[in-house]
From TrEMBL:
Keywords assigned by UniProt, alphabetized: Lyase, Pyridoxal phosphate
Organism of derivation: Micromonospora chokoriensis
Cofactor(s), names only, from the UniProt record: pyridoxal 5'-phosphate
A GO term, aspect molecular function: L-allo-threonine aldolase activity
Keyword Translocase attached: no
Modified residues (N6-(pyridoxal phosphate)lysine): 203
Superkingdom in the source lineage: Bacteria
InterPro entries in the cross-refs: ArAA_b-elim_lyase/Thr_aldolase, Low_specificity_L-TA-like, PyrdxlP-dep_Trfase, PyrdxlP-dep_Trfase_major, PyrdxlP-dep_Trfase_small
Protein name, entry field: L-threonine aldolase
Family statement: Belongs to the threonine aldolase family.
Pfam families: Beta_elim_lyase (PF01212)
Record-annotated Aromatic amino acid beta-eliminating lyase/threonine aldolase domain positions: 7-287
Length: 344
């Protein structure tokens, strides 16, 4: 068993940097449920401005932020459309149905390669004794799509589809910072396309916790009530918000380093026919359908070699670069992974 590990399981495993810990330790705080935490208020105003919206709301997790946004857009018994691999229907434990009474219908999983005409054809209007569609959700970047970036043109077409049908458009933007860095699209350009967004501070940006719901002032006023109902009201949350503000100031541009590291990993495994898709950002998706090792076996062998990877399915695995992965760590991984894949 290896003495030292390179943790490529997720970008949620990062630790706060020294500068971030200092910001947290010195944060000015108050009671956020009363709206009196100045650091939370500053973070919410900053993120809202980045995306060109009126307001934002700090939430403990990306799942809660997504589910708050969906409840803002879809009434109980009405319908959300998204792809079959979307985080909101794959990794949020049925929350849309359990908390919002929302009916979900999906198009076939294609990652970031969405066909707006297919989505348009799925929208159900009021009447006809069918569940009416109220919102469309997309994921930028797409987790199970290997960190794929939905092109700006596709998002504009989806906005037109939503407008023509009179439905809302939500962005699960947990990793939207990566799309911004990879394609150079300004955050405000993304923001103007969506009625609501959720954006995460605790993945690529390296904060220990927290996401935000972004939208209009009236939506965010309602969102505060939904957050409280879901148990998300926090008190002196400025300690956490300070980490998010530090991350926004110091950890966005550096995401390009994570993309370069992911490209090195992709190049190392590509000759073995297991690369599921081009590595556009910090995720490297592995398809082991034609390999001798399944995902759990690969993860076990890699762990023995000091490389931790994520198992997403019987024949699907994932490598993720992040703030806590050094160039030396990548050197170790690109030496170990080909050896493992060859030996098998």
């Amino acid at each position: 068993m290896a003495d030292q590990f390179v943790d490529l399981r997720s970008d949620t495993v990062t630790r706060p940097t020294a500068g971030m810990r200092e910001a947290m330790a010195t944060a000015e705080v108050g009671d956020d449920v009363y709206g009196e935490d100045p650091t939370v208020n500053a973070l919410e105003a900053e993120v809202a401005a980045l995306f060109g919206h009126e307001a934002a709301l700090f939430a403990p997790s990306g799942s809660m932020a997504n589910q708050i946004a969906l409840q803002l857009l879809v009434s109980p018994g009405d319908e959300l459309l998204c792809d079959a691999d979307a985080h909101v229907v794959t990794y949020e434990i049925g929350a849309a149905a359990a908390y919002g009474g929302i009916s979900s219908r999906t198009w076939p999983a294609v990652g970031a390669d969405i066909d707006p005409e297919t989505v348009a054809g799925m929208i159900r209007p009021d009447g006809f004794f069918a569940v009416p569609t109220r919102a469309i959700a997309v994921e930028q970047t797409h987790n199970r799509g290997g960190g794929g970036v939905i092109p700006l043109g596709t998002l504009r077409d989806l906005r037109a589809v939503a407008d023509d049908a009179g439905v809302a458009l939500h962005c699960d933007g947990a990793r939207i910072w990566h799309a911004h860095v990879a394609d150079g699209v300004p955050l405000i350009e993304y923001g103007r396309l969506f009625d609501t967004l959720s954006v995460c501070l605790s993945k690529g940006l390296g904060a220990p916790v927290g996401s935000l719901v972004v939208g209009s002032a009236d939506k965010i006023e309602r969102a505060r009530l939904i957050r409280k109902r879901m148990g998300g009201g926090m008190r002196q949350a400025g300690v956490l918000a300070a980490a998010g503000r530090y991350a926004l100031a110091h950890h966005v541009d550096r995401l390009a380093d994570d993309h370069a590291k992911a490209s090195r990993l992709a190049e190392a495994v590509a000759p073995f026919g297991v690369l599921a898709t081009t590595a556009r950002t910090n995720l490297v998706a592995l398809d082991l359908t034609k390999h001798a090792l399944d995902a759990r076996a690969l993860a076990a062998v890699a762990r023995a070699e000091g490389v931790l990877i994520s198992v997403l399915g019987p024949r699907t695995a994932r490598l993720v670069t992040h703030l806590g992965v050094s160039d030396a760590d990548i050197d170790h991984a690109v030496e170990a992974l080909p050896r493992i894949l060859t030996a098998s």
